[in-house]
Structure formats: structure tokens, C-alpha cells
Amino acid sequence: MGAVVDVQSVRKVFGSGLDGNPFTAVKDVTFTVAAGEVVCICGKTGCGKSTLVNMLLGIDPPSEGTIRIDGLSPSADFMKMRGKLAAVFQTDRLLPWRSVIDNAAIGLEVAGVAKEDRYAQARVWLTKVGLTGWEHAYPHQLSGGMRQRVAIARAFVTNPKVILLDEAFGHLDEVTAHKLRQDCMALINESQTAAIVVTHNITEALELGTRVLVLGKPARVISTHELVDIRKRPDWAIQRDRVRSDIFRNIDSESFG
Ligand SMILES: Nc1ncnc2c1ncn2[C@@H]1O[C@H](COP(=O)(O)OP(=O)(O)OP(=O)(O)O)[C@@H](O)[C@H]1O
Ligand SMILES: [Mg+2]
User: Fold this and answer.
1) Residues 26, 246: Cα–Cα separation, whole Å
2) pLDDT per residue as tens digits for the range 194-222
3) Which residue has the CA at smallest separation from atom 31 of ligand 1?
4) Is 0.85 surpassed by the pTM of this model?
5) Closest ligand, as measured to the CA of 43
């Protein structure tokens, strides 16, 4: 199957870093993501993950190289990207004055879908994330985990080609995060969305990923760990611990300036 996300030789140089000179935040990043794949991008603080996310979201164009999402450039084709790429961030970014269902349906509202239809579609996704009965509650009445579930429903409601999870479980306790990651995986599998997971949490990468990319600083892929086949092995737990040590060693080996 062809790649839904195609990132080729992407580089980002900021006009001026702390010392006033050009600063390379992303050196050279190449990867692809096909439908149903979950590519986790892991790296130390300051290695350029958020810079990469901003380029994937089309907020900032690359200095060099190309990004294609479903054949479009996120920055140059920004308006056409609507509904194709959805993101879940560390904070839920719900609108406090809107009910759960009005938050979940916002992508459909922006796309001009009539209220009855968008409510019907939002209800489907709120059910999938376990929030039946909470449609007319407001964000302040929900726990952090429930709010993040609304954010996940909101992301999936437009049937995006690509879902981007940027430290999406970082604010949750480990047990809640684990459950939510499992539920999110099921939704990705069911919808065959291409997923990019940006995280500094190696456990998260090993739970979610079909592939883990480790970034050096400044960002470039220093190792790739394929997980699909070894996840099926009876000794997966041992394999996972081996990959965890490899990832840890690779991240740690990067100098930190
Ligand atoms: N607009 C900017 N201008 C200049 N330098 C920048 C700019 N944005 C980010 N940087 C620098 O680029 C580097 C990468 O930053 P980035 O925020 O992408 O890291 P990160 O991997 O997301 O880190 P963290 O895990 O802490 O969130 C940092 O050294 C940062 O200071
Ligand atoms: Mg960041």
C-alpha cells in the first residue's frame, strides 16, 4: 500500500538561534507512514520533535525537503488539508463553553455538516471512546482522562487519513494512559488511519508503534525499530525489553548541547 504520509529529507533551520546565528533544529528526517501503520517518533527533549510536528501540521514550512500528506503539502495546501489530518495534543484544547458533543463535532461543523448529521456522527465516536451519556456535559464536569477521550473523538470524527498524537497521554496517570492508548490503538486499527505518535515516553512508543524511529539532536533518524513481527512472537515481552534497551541506549548516546 502507498504511503499516506511521505516525509523526505526534511530540514528546518531557524533564522536565529540564541546566539543570533542560524540554528538547525531538524537536520534531515525521512520516513513514510501507510494506512494502519503507527509510526512513533521518540527523542530527547530539544531534539526537534515539536518543530517536526509544526511542519506536519503545516504551521511552519520545512527549510528543505518535502512533506506530503495524502499527496498534499501541509503548509502550501493548508486549506485543503482540513479533515485529512487530525491531531491530539498533550492538553485537550476543548472549548470550555461548548458541550462534549459540540466539542466532538467541531470538525464537522467547520466543514458545514448539518447539526443533525454531525451530532449523529459525533455520537458514534463518543460511544467508541466510552462517553455515552456525557454528550451534554461540559468539559469542566469531566476528568482529565475523559476530556482526552473527547479530544480523541473530535480527532476521529472527520475520518482523517492521518492522526497525529503529540504527547497525547502525557498528562494522564500511567494506568489511565495505558487504557486510553489501548482504546486509541483499537480505533486506529478499525479505521485504518495512518498514525504518527510523537513522544518521549519509550513505554508509549512500544505499546502503540508498528515502528519506532529514534531521533538524534538535531533531529535525524538514528535508529528504526520494526515491531509488527516481533509483537506476534510468544517471547514478545523479552523482545520488547530488548528493544527498550536499544532505544534507551540510542537516545542516551546522543550528545546534549
Ligand atoms: N522558532 C524558533 N527559533 C529558534 N530556535 C527554535 C525555535 N523553535 C525551536 N527552536 C529550537 O529548536 C530546538 C528543538 O526544539 P523543539 O521544541 O522542536 O524540541 P522538542 O524535541 O519538541 O523538545 P521537548 O521534548 O522538550 O518538547 C531547540 O533547541 C529549540 O530551542
Ligand atoms: Mg516539544
Assistant:
1) 22
2) 999 999 899 999 999 999 999 999 999 99
3) 46
4) yes
5) 1
